[in-house]
Write a structure and sequence with these properties.
heterohexamer; A: mainly alpha; Ammonium transporter fold; 2% strand; globular; D: 112 residues; alpha+beta; 20% helix; 41% strand; elongated; binds adenosine-5'-diphosphate
Chain lengths: 431, 431, 431, 112, 112, 112
Amino acid sequence: MRIGFGHAVTGAGVLLAWPVAAAADSGDTAWMLTATALVLFMTLPGLALFYAGLVRARNVLSVLMQCFTIASVVSIFWVLVGYSLAFGDGGAGHAVIGGFGRVLLAGLDAGAVHAAYPNIPESVFLMFQMTFAIITPALVVGAFAERMRFGAMLLFSVLWLLLVYIPVAHWVWGGGWLASLGFRDFAGGAVVHINAGIAALVAALVLGSRRGFPMQPMPPHNLPTTVAGAGMLWVGWFGFNAGSAVAADGAAGMAMLATHTAAAAGCFAWICQEWLKFGKPSVLGIVTGMVAGLGTITPASGYVGPGGALAIGLLAGTVCFWATQYVKRRLQIDDSLDVFPVHGVGGFMGTVLTGVFGAAALGGIDPADGRLLIVQLGIQFLGATATLAWSAGVTFIILKLVAALTPLRVTAEEETEGLDIALHEERGYNL
Amino acid sequence: MRIGFGHAVTGAGVLLAWPVAAAADSGDTAWMLTATALVLFMTLPGLALFYAGLVRARNVLSVLMQCFTIASVVSIFWVLVGYSLAFGDGGAGHAVIGGFGRVLLAGLDAGAVHAAYPNIPESVFLMFQMTFAIITPALVVGAFAERMRFGAMLLFSVLWLLLVYIPVAHWVWGGGWLASLGFRDFAGGAVVHINAGIAALVAALVLGSRRGFPMQPMPPHNLPTTVAGAGMLWVGWFGFNAGSAVAADGAAGMAMLATHTAAAAGCFAWICQEWLKFGKPSVLGIVTGMVAGLGTITPASGYVGPGGALAIGLLAGTVCFWATQYVKRRLQIDDSLDVFPVHGVGGFMGTVLTGVFGAAALGGIDPADGRLLIVQLGIQFLGATATLAWSAGVTFIILKLVAALTPLRVTAEEETEGLDIALHEERGYNL
Amino acid sequence: MRIGFGHAVTGAGVLLAWPVAAAADSGDTAWMLTATALVLFMTLPGLALFYAGLVRARNVLSVLMQCFTIASVVSIFWVLVGYSLAFGDGGAGHAVIGGFGRVLLAGLDAGAVHAAYPNIPESVFLMFQMTFAIITPALVVGAFAERMRFGAMLLFSVLWLLLVYIPVAHWVWGGGWLASLGFRDFAGGAVVHINAGIAALVAALVLGSRRGFPMQPMPPHNLPTTVAGAGMLWVGWFGFNAGSAVAADGAAGMAMLATHTAAAAGCFAWICQEWLKFGKPSVLGIVTGMVAGLGTITPASGYVGPGGALAIGLLAGTVCFWATQYVKRRLQIDDSLDVFPVHGVGGFMGTVLTGVFGAAALGGIDPADGRLLIVQLGIQFLGATATLAWSAGVTFIILKLVAALTPLRVTAEEETEGLDIALHEERGYNL
Amino acid sequence: MKLITAIIKPFRLDDVRNALAEVGVNGMTVTEVKGFGRQRGHTELYRGAEYVVDFLPKAKVEVAVADDLVERAIEAITAAARTGKVGDGKIFVIDLEQALRIRTGEAGDSAL
Amino acid sequence: MKLITAIIKPFRLDDVRNALAEVGVNGMTVTEVKGFGRQRGHTELYRGAEYVVDFLPKAKVEVAVADDLVERAIEAITAAARTGKVGDGKIFVIDLEQALRIRTGEAGDSAL
Amino acid sequence: MKLITAIIKPFRLDDVRNALAEVGVNGMTVTEVKGFGRQRGHTELYRGAEYVVDFLPKAKVEVAVADDLVERAIEAITAAARTGKVGDGKIFVIDLEQALRIRTGEAGDSAL
Ligand SMILES: Nc1ncnc2c1ncn2[C@@H]1O[C@H](COP(=O)(O)OP(=O)(O)O)[C@@H](O)[C@H]1O
Ligand SMILES: Nc1ncnc2c1ncn2[C@@H]1O[C@H](COP(=O)(O)OP(=O)(O)O)[C@@H](O)[C@H]1O
Ligand SMILES: Nc1ncnc2c1ncn2[C@@H]1O[C@H](COP(=O)(O)OP(=O)(O)O)[C@@H](O)[C@H]1O
């Protein structure tokens, strides 16, 4: 997210003053309302369909249910306390977490704006941010698909929102310590993708593989559904990245261009790898390459030019392809839908590369204070690593905690029968 | 819909002057163009898919056909005469219906604005309203799905548009008697949801149950399709409710927030009820709870705060859950896709609750003229009841009229064979 | 596209000056960002699903793959050279083609605007145009579906973009000779629909029919998927046509109204024809009529009133219906998904009718310089014919060229087995 | 033992199952099949491409029964599946040499 | 009476149906099945997870015929289903003890 | 020759195929079927409309084998398909009068 539209946010101080009365710009507001709709669209139905098509037919509903339920409970918790902790004033501890002053959105009305974004109403700003908080835990679903119990999933997701997503979002976008350092993460390379990606890896390891993995083939049951979801993700990502400009201007346009270019390049790079290695390009390949390109450009999207975006996209498609082979085939970790090698690896790479291609010399936009490239690179690396470490550690603790309260996995019989019948007493298809 | 953006509409008088020349705001216009696209998206493909997944495979196309055809003919009739009757000047009878002065959109050009909404072009205003006129009769389809003949459906829908939807829309949004009374219906709790919901109940009663109901199970044939439609409805509803602010501002932002919060709460409340009663939450449950939350918040969305929205959403999910059980299981009325217990009950409840939570004391916005809560509550109840009565009565008459001209139902053989082959000579799937 | 928002583009001269620094309008920019997302949405997933549902199950992925791959490579080539050739300064040859001055988008930054459209950032303008460049070759896919090899398709599409699409786009929208003549093509009747439609016919003839055509029935394998795609196309087309106003104003509103009206009329006219000829209306019919209505109104959408749009839509549904019967049944040309009779015939008809209904006397907007209707009609006919001839000829040459390098068709065995397994080693469904 | 195979109209399946249960047959195996016979199929029409679908959806019910149950089972199926219209279907009877229950290894009548 | 079961390549189904009609067989029941045999299956590949699908789609055609038609029916199927490549399929013949038409109760040859 | 028909739990199919291959059976035909028997089905629930699905997904494996292979084939199937829980399924054996390979016209044991 572009940090500080109205005036620079350089720490906790400035946030003490909000909300202030100011006239929002109708054009910027129009775009942010739209962008909010687009990012929700990414999760529902976008990501839900993308994931649902990839599992076996007997688990299709369980995945849709997870995405839908996460959207519901995250929204409720965001209104109750999430927004306050992420973007509220944290007082003395503002470097690490926001405060409780905005619990239940206290003080919000139609005229309110956020100090850092006086060009749009605060209601729009917090809605836009809510959609990010929804999609991030929903991404993790891909790791434990086809075996996690519903209740455990629900508990895990709420705790993960509160203890992993919100702190990291605060550090980077809410005026926390990474923001103060000048860490650049335009639309969530660290906050969303590294965060969800590494949590997925940890979850896959803690839960263990699906029964039959890797001997038994587990092909996607409905690739057209996955492609439908992929198309929605691509379109929705315009809201994600270009919306992170928090304005309808040239910066949003440049972000959209970078986003689109990287997606296209990710597609292309992935199918080239497939063509070289397997002799045939595939549909699942091209949509995975697309997601890799989009995830990787996300942190950089507001800072790089089209050339940088092309380079990042090509790298994304190539590196994430090999990472997927490595994690799934070599390490035999059953991160069911490859969340880590695509989002985790892509997000990390993109966050670091933001320090490279986000330089005027390479067609990007130099950091404001004339910081050296090597310094920025260090900051990027630090931020990416801190996110990785925090998310990995806390995810692990949460899973152990949940496991102490309720079993994480369904029984072997339930897994064989399929989660749809076992957990929800419904079947996906009666054709 | 927010009534009277430019200046207050307090009856027919002010409407005599339009269209006036005025400069529209590009930001507001941008949002309303988008909102229009979003509301169309709710019907096509949103609602069409939502409904299509719920019927049996052999009737999937008939439902899609009904939604698509309604979109087509309603649009044509809206251009020909509908807009004029709903929003045109009704002269002496303006309290009950508009006039014929704008037939075929006479007087419209690119510079025209509507007196009540001078901030956007009139072409955009009438397009936005058209999408509401499309979705309302399309909602009714759920009641007579899997048995109504195509020709009868077509005739019914056109008459229903002209004799039920348009008058009610005029009363509430076109400067009619309910508008004059100060009835609050921000985005169509009465105009859309009560209207369609009660019409559905009447249609289900007049047509009679599907063959085999309730003995024979009639499970949804494709729940992933229904979930895809549900996601589109959620996203599209942002256009429906936040678009009803007719501007890109804080009011739109607050409406989006209320809408989203109620949807999330509706989801959650419904699956909690399922969990308690049946021991298992379900996918069909969560999406139905979402629709209940959205339908119920609709009239209130521009007048309540997030706390009110949360309360309304929780009530919606709970009450509509029990209403569904009651109508379908206890009364054994075969309103096939539960339009009445979700939209009718939710719409009524929401319209009344607008009189409660739309009070500053409860985090909402008091009525402009300092009206007492109890008075407003009375007005809300009156408006809801009047809509209910009008729609029920006229729907019944229309159905009897159509039945006199052409049979309403397919034959028993056609019903067994499925409407897709019987009516359209097509099959949904050749997998 | 509305030509020359800021000031008239009457040839190459004015283009020499860009990019200029100017303040974009946030409302217009908001709408154009949205419109760009909508037009991408038309291809991914809209058109991809629309086409995918129409083929047989064993080829479903091959069609999705073609649409996705085209989106990827066209985007890359657009950034590399396409935008420069279409909208860059062509110097002496500007009448026929742009130049290489903007290769790799040289000179673009967040502050840049295009001289002709100073109200929005250039980044947004070029993104919006890119989405048109994506969908046009994707439309052609319908002609050679179920038999073309992937590599040949890829090569063909890139050459076709460069040698067919870009020149024609330049002639009409980039300040080329048709623009100078005053040719009216608001959103791509010639540039998109005639262009793709005639290329489809040529491709169908060069590749030859699918094995078994016309003896063996080849019914759509999943019509609900096609309907989902159709709904997305309708919604997305609002971005296509109303976005071509390049502003959020009354002109955009009128274009949206004309677009929607023609779509509705196209639906209605097509099913009336079916009803008369076959006794039953069909789902495939109504969505095809919708596309016919939308394709036909496209060139006229910014110049006609709602009455003209209604007439054009009714004509589109009727004429394209008969054209489809004629080409497929009578001539027995296996343009698999009927691209030519719908887009080609509709596009041609619409381009010519723009010269009729785009007259103030018929509710439209007269050409700026007081040109006579008959003169404009001649220009329209000339532009349509020139596009037809260029596209037909160059498409033929490209196909022969590609055929010389690599076989165009899969083998008979591969065709029988299905392209999904043969070319991509994947299967669409494992239900 | 005999293996009875009945090709019936799909919407009669539940009736047939119940009728069989009443005469004491507690197991059966059902397959979705397409039948071709005297019953006319339907027409499908896609953008004017008309074609006749002769294959109609049928359910194939297979029941292995002890010899003394054959008559009653056939009667039960016939009564439950008959609508009186063309296409009601056929019943075929085949000699079953051996039957085994996989779980227990039981053979013969007691395996059914 | 005999029950002839033919496992054939799906795209030969229409030819087989026509060939059977020519020799006077007017009814049949078809099932989509998966066959495993000498014919090699195909590979599928999902994000690098490769696996071989040995089961190939086949159509199973079942026809009950009077004894005197058996030879001709078999010849008709063989001629119509043969492509000459591996995987053309098999024909099995089983003795049919009894056949009944549900609609009329007719038994034996006249039930077919 | 005999025709062995086994109704098994679907997730045991690969094991059964491998077991058959080991005893020398190299061809088989598999059909997705729904079974009804002692094994209890599941409940489905849609907006409070509850109903019991008694028909469970099963795989039907058909193998034609020469007489001397029958015992071993049955044993192989039994061993591979058994889970010990209700619903493991049945094996039926029928006499096969004739078998033909369509491609070559070979008949009898060599056709298998
Ligand atoms: N000779 C046959 N062999 C196998 N199945 C047959 C045969 N004749 C008919 N059938 C099956 O029985 C079904 C009903 O047959 P049909 O001739 O349509 O009506 P009816 O049973 O009333 O005579 C067919 O759809 C087909 O599945
Ligand atoms: N022993 C068998 N029992 C049952 N079905 C068999 C047997 N052998 C082959 N089949 C069926 O016949 C089909 C064709 O067999 P295959 O060995 O591939 O080729 P061919 O028929 O040319 O010898 C298989 O896919 C399978 O469905
Ligand atoms: N009499 C029968 N005829 C045909 N198929 C049967 C018969 N009884 C059982 N089956 C099949 O065998 C399957 C397993 O039978 P079931 O009674 O559930 O368990 P078990 O095999 O352990 O006794 C059933 O689902 C059904 O497909």
